[in-house]
Specification:
The chain is mainly β and 120 residues long. The protein contains no helices and 11 strands.
């Protein structure tokens, strides 16, 4: 089970830090990724991190603004979001899976999502 938190309303240019808390003791064996979905749009890949944390990959749209990280001792992943824009408004989801991939189908467990709203 995954539980996201940290979403909210922020002004353009501001920052938010999302958290993804996992239950169970095998968190470190799974890749983790963040996606978002805006109304009427498909789920969009944002960032992924390998189980040990040594490999990360970002979508061009968030590269240099967002940073993915994880604390395996606490079974928690993070997404630090800086320089937020109105286009970043969406529901943000974390997922974990056995495969390091940008495709949503590669992630077998998802959180419930957390709303991020950026006002211009």
């Amino acid at each position: 089970q995954l539980v996201e938190s940290g979403g909210g309303l922020v002004q353009a240019g501001g920052s938010l830090r999302l958290s993804c808390a996992a239950s169970g003791r095998t968190f470190s064996t799974y890749a983790m990724a963040w996606f978002r979905q805006a109304p009427g749009k498909e789920r969009e890949f944002l960032a992924l991190i390998s189980g040990g944390g040594s490999f990360t990959e970002y979508a061009d749209s968030v590269k240099d603004r967002f940073t993915i990280s994880r604390d395996n001792a606490k079974s928690t992943g993070f997404l630090q979001m800086n320089s937020l824009k109105s286009d970043d408004t969406a529901v943000y989801y974390c997922g974990v899976g056995s495969v390091v991939t940008k495709a949503p189908r590669g992630y077998t467990t998802w959180g419930q999502g957390t709303q991020v709203t950026v006002s211009s």
